[in-house]
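Hi R.,

As promised on Friday, here is the backbone we talked about, encoded as structure tokens. Could you run it through your design pipeline when you get a chance and send me back a sequence?
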């Protein structure tokens, strides 16, 4: 996903599956989404919110490629990223795992709503 994003000079987004053991999140699968209805960076929250829900998916992953400093893109979620995460929670009413990839080897992830390693049961709302 990183190589495709850099090659296209556009950010990419995908669905993320994970398991949680104790205080550690293990990413088990990622599936990139086809960019559509994208903003200037080539990424849209609409598709990821609808396509990346439970029980198959536990959240989303996306790339940050625009340089934030001399050597790296932003290594943390932006305000727009947090809005997309909020849309995901509003849609699925479930714990979520969200990651951003900011180099060929580095990612930053957050698992929200996880208490003591126990995940809430997802509730499918208004399909």
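Update: got your reply. Pasting your designed sequence below so it's all in one thread:
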């Amino acid at each position: 996903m990183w190589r495709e994003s850099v090659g296209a000079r556009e950010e990419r987004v995908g669905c993320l599956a994970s398991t949680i053991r104790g205080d550690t999140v293990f990413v088990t699968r990622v599936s990139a989404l086809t960019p559509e209805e994208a903003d200037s960076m080539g990424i849209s929250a609409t598709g990821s919110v609808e396509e990346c829900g439970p029980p198959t998916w536990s959240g989303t992953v996306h790339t940050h490629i625009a340089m934030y400093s001399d050597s790296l893109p932003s290594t943390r979620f932006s305000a727009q990223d947090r809005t997309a995460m909020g849309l995901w929670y509003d849609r699925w009413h479930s714990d979520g795992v969200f990651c951003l990839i900011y180099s060929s080897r580095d990612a930053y992830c957050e698992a929200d709503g996880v208490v003591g390693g126990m995940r809430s049961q997802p509730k499918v709302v208004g399909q």
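One thing I noticed while checking it: The mean pLDDT is 80.

Thanks again,
M.
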